[in-house]
Structure formats: structure tokens, C-alpha cells
Amino acid sequence: PMYRRTFFFLLMLPLASPASENGFETLRAPEYQTLLHDGLTVFNHHEDAVALTALKRTACAGDALSQKMLGEMYVLGRGSPQDVALGYAWLSAAAASSAPGASKLITQIDQALSKEQSDIVKKRAEQIQAEYGPSQTHATCSKRDSQGGRISDSVLCAPREVGNHEVEILKCAE
Fold this sequence. Notes:
single chain, alpha+beta, 3-stranded antiparallel beta sheet, two-stranded antiparallel sheet, 9 helices, 59% helix, 17% strand, globular
């Protein structure tokens, strides 16, 4: 009967979210916060393989601190083979969102590279920016100050809220 088909169609609507069709996924806000927290925790405990996976997901979603830590991991070869170009690219994305320390690391890498190497890493940085920069992820980042507001020493990024305590995060293409 017609009412059964309509009811079945209505049940399927949440599964066919437009967010999943455009490269985004919807998460409950507490789930996203847990994902961020877990990524930071395993990074700090040097559980590199787990940290790489967790940080990649939140970095792709536009979290500047995750982008910085992911960049560091690739530059140092933590949790994956060393990839200075990819690490530089993620550090550049982090710097675009004002992640503290990202610009300094980029400068240090720039000083150690030849002209040819510099061209390669900057091209990769442009690619990552085009895929995961602030305008693509829809994340909003703001600097946070400490010491009475005299020093900006962290950045807080938040994914786009889509209502009902849910957020929309960009999925990694890789």
C-alpha cells in the first residue's frame, strides 16, 4: 500500500543526509569534542599510529591545533613515514587559522630547504589549503588569550553547527 511506501521513505531520510553527499558528515557536538580530546590525548602520550588517525579526522574538519600536530607528525615521521611536504602543508593550514607556533615551524622548515624543495612543499601546501582551509571546512577559529589577555597562545576552532546539538565536519578525501 501507498502509506507503507511513504512511511519507509520517511524512515530513510535521516540516512540520506545531504551532508554526506557534499563531503561533510554530521556528528553530535559531544562526539566531536570527544574526538578532539582523544586525538590530543593520544598525541601527548606518543601513541602515534592512533594519534595520526584521530588528528587527521579533526584536521580535515578544520581544527587548527589538530592541523598543527598532524603537520608535526608528518615532518618528524611520527606514526607514518616522514613526509616533510605533507607536514609543511598541514602546518600551513594551521597557520592560516592562527595556530600558535605553526608559522614559526614553517619558517624553520623554509630555512632548511633548497629552492626546489621549497617549491614542492609550497605547492603541496596550496593543495591542502584548497581542500581543508577555513573556507572549505566552514570551521570558525578564534584566538584565545592568556596572562590577562596580553598573549595570544592558543586558538579555538569550532565546526559549523547544524542544529539540535549537531555539527557538520568535512571528511578527509584520502
